[in-house]
TrEMBL record:
This is Bifunctional hydroxymethylpyrimidine kinase/phosphomethylpyrimidine kinase. Its EC number is 2.7.1.49, 2.7.4.7. It catalyses: 4-amino-5-hydroxymethyl-2-methylpyrimidine + ATP = 4-amino-2-methyl-5-(phosphooxymethyl)pyrimidine + ADP + H(+); 4-amino-2-methyl-5-(phosphooxymethyl)pyrimidine + ATP = 4-amino-2-methyl-5-(diphosphooxymethyl)pyrimidine + ADP. Coiled coil: none annotated. The gene is thiD. Keywords: ATP-binding, Kinase, Nucleotide-binding, Thiamine biosynthesis, Transferase.
Length: 268
């Protein structure tokens, strides 16, 4: 039996809510074979990130070599890339294997709780060298502020930031509204250079929202691997994420993980 494959280039979250753990669960939900190139290990839980250790850029590149040369790939997402060396290694491999048509970049820099997840130096390299290769880049409010150099408090400012980030070369941009004020929470702005779309779902009232961004970008990569067009991949993934958020798990003392396999949760 053949099966589409998707790759996450991202960090590990020991608490299982975000990072490769969320990505691989999301791939599995979509019946896509999940593969991973691990960039770093975080000691992390629902409350925060306690410690981080990086893998070497060579090891990140080697993992990408291993999976691409043997299994092939139809959808890719990047998550927490941590430092300049890892970002540069990722950029080289994307270019070597001409993986740009499959690449979704979640420019993980600052978590919604405000924790910095990437070195200062790395921000510039990510913005200048990785973002331009992507078919889609999915910044949250804070990341969009950094990438666009503008403050974002309103829907108009989300749209303006999306246009500025699009100028950097990404084919499309989705500015996510999870960290926006209440009335805009759950509202994301899509821009592909021609069309705008405001993706709006209800604001799900829950403190258990750990891994929303990872889950959304992994679902988009899975939908691309399944052969869906980019825009419809984004729309389907937004629906998936919203339901997963409604079935989020009340675990830990902080923000619990979203419920990736919500139909199973429903039965139990
Ligand atoms: N309370 C909410 N209700 C509905 N949708 C939400 C809510 N919070 C976040 N989302 C949605 O979750 C997705 C991820 O957005 P968010 O801004 O949380 O990303 P993020 O900060 O990268 O996530 P992470 O917590 O993984 O770092 C977006 O589609 C956003 O609209
Ligand atoms: C490993 C990892 N990747 C991404 C995020 C962003 O949510 C996180 N908290 N941890």
């Amino acid at each position: 039996m053949s099966c589409p494959t998707a790759l996450t280039i991202a960090g590990s979250d020991s608490g299982g809510g975000a990072g490769i753990q969320a990505d691989l669960r999301t791939f599995a939900f979509h019946r896509v074979h999940g593969m991973s190139a691990l960039t770093c290990v975080t000691a992390q839980n629902t409350v925060g990130v306690q410690q981080v250790d990086a893998l070497s850029p060579e090891m990140v590149a080697a993992q990408i070599d291993s999976v691409i040369s043997d299994l092939g790939v139809q959808g890719i997402k990047t998550g927490m890339l941590l430092n300049q060396g890892i970002i540069e290694a990722t950029v080289r491999q994307i270019e070597n294997y001409e993986l740009q048509p499959y690449l979704v970049v979640d420019p993980v820099m600052v978590s919604r709780s405000g924790a910095q997840l990437i070195d200062d130096l790395a921000v510039e390299v990510l913005s200048q060298h990785l973002v331009p290769l992507a078919i889609l880049v999915t910044p949250n409010r804070y990341e969009a502020q950094i990438l666009s150099g503008q403050e974002i408090n309103t829907l108009e400012e989300m749209k303006k930031a999306a246009a500025i980030i699009h100028e950097k070369g990404a084919k499309a941009v989705l500015v996510k509204g999870g960290a926006m004020p209440q009335e805009l929470r759950g509202v994301d702005v899509w821009f592909d250079g021609e069309d705008w779309e405001i993706l709006k779902t209800k604001n799900v009232e829950t403190k258990n929202n750990h891994g929303t961004g990872c889950t959304l970008s992994a679902a988009i990569a899975a939908n691309i691997a399944l052969g869906n067009h980019l825009k419809s991949s984004v729309e389907k993934s937004k629906q998936y994420l919203t339901t997963a958020l409604e079935y989020a798990l009340d675990l830990g003392k902080g923000s619990g993980p979203v419920g990736h396999f919500f139909p199973l949760n429903q039965d139990s």
